[in-house]
Specification:
- The structure is a single chain.
- By secondary structure, this protein is α+β, with helices and mostly antiparallel strands.
- It has a domain of 128 residues: Archaeosine Trna-guanine Transglycosylase, Chain: A, domain 4 (Roll).
- 29% of the residues lie in helices and 29% in strands.
- Strands 1, 2, 3, 4, 5, 6 and 7 form a 7-stranded mixed β-sheet that branches.
- The longest helix has 23 residues.
- The chain is globular, with a radius of gyration of 19 Å.
Length: 184
């Protein structure tokens, strides 16, 4: 990877279950996470993709790609993957993470003993020096405390952003009436 991550960057390690998901991330610039299994905070700086056994012997069980997070939204699976309208989870909510171009790591980070990964957080500093996935895990109490505070700040900022409302004067009175906020 030619891009150097800031030491303080917050990185979400996320599962990349299939080649199709890789192609969507690479070609369309987004990645999906089911709301029901999503990590508590998705307002992170980067997402690192852990490739499962579906990638075959040469590319499975490793992190070989990273992408910057540009934004996110909540939507339904049917709106993300329109060619599967009858999918059993079509009506379920998913986070759609908008991502920058995939950056291939110069040296992939192998899983080592880890094979089943869903989501976990790490830092840019740990990501830059990791030799295996185990090296990405926050182990010391001090590091966990810093990570916890960072995640909490991100969650609070995300909630503040969502809680902001437009002044009612900017909204059409007919819309406000439909919402029950205008009696005039």
């Amino acid at each position: 990877m030619s891009t150097t991550l800031p030491e303080t960057a917050l990185v979400l390690v996320a599962i990349l279950p299939s080649q199709r998901d890789f192609d969507i991330a690479r070609l369309f610039g987004w990645y999906r996470i089911p709301l029901k299994s999503a990590p508590k905070v998705i307002s992170v700086d980067y997402v690192a993709f852990y490739q499962t056994k579906s990638f075959g012997d040469a590319e499975r069980w490793q992190i070989a790609y990273l992408a910057e997070i540009l934004g996110h939204e909540l939507t339904r699976r049917r709106d993300l993957i329109r060619d599967e309208p009858a999918h059993p989870r079509a009506h379920e909510e998913y986070f759609k993470l908008q991502i920058g171009p995939l950056q291939q790591l110069d040296k992939p980070i192998p899983a080592g003993d880890w094979k089943r990964i869903t989501f976990f957080y790490t830092t840019g500093e740990m990501f830059q020096s990791a030799q295996t996935v185990n090296d990405l895990v926050i182990k010391s109490q001090d590091e966990r405390e810093v990570l916890w505070h960072t995640l909490r700040e991100r969650a609070l900022l995300a909630n503040e952003y969502r809680a902001q409302e437009l002044p009612e004067t900017l909204l059409d009175p007919a819309i406000l009436a439909l919402l029950g906020k205008f009696t005039g």
